[in-house]
Amino acid sequence: MNPFQPVLILSFAFLAVFAEATLSAPRHLLGAQIDLLPALMVYTALSADLVTVCLLAILGGVWFDSFSANPLGVSILPLFVVGFPIYLRRELILRDLPFAQLMLGGAASAVVPLLSLLLLLNGGKEPLLVWGSLWQWVVMTAGGGLVTPVIFKLFAWLGRTLGYQRHIEMGFRPDREIRHRKILK
What we know:
By secondary structure, the chain is mainly α.
């Protein structure tokens, strides 16, 4: 793993949460805000270490809750519950296929709001649940699924552009000249 990758992931999480809080055009156009943290958690669980998964769950959850009406810390557990099983089974997941990325991102984007709602209801809070909430959940699920392959491509490009590329030198140089002498007996 590139040592610069956790910094990129956490920076992107902060910028994504900030953009979700400040940009209202997607919310007015679609009727719901697309959450980028579950899609980013799928990428992190498939390509980073467990420390980065935990840091994204903690910091991303706190950042998201600080900009929303959620009590502080409610989003940490749902993000971790989504990221940890993916991290455990990442050898079995075809992480390079866009269809697999789309399915995992959609599932993560569907599970995180439901777990957050469950935690709010168990915590004695009374969130506003109407039939429009179902539309918001569908938009968040579809949007999270569609944005997940984009995040994979973005981080692949950032890794190539900003990351250190190890240069492997071969023992045989193709530009050297080999002279053969005739041995006379």
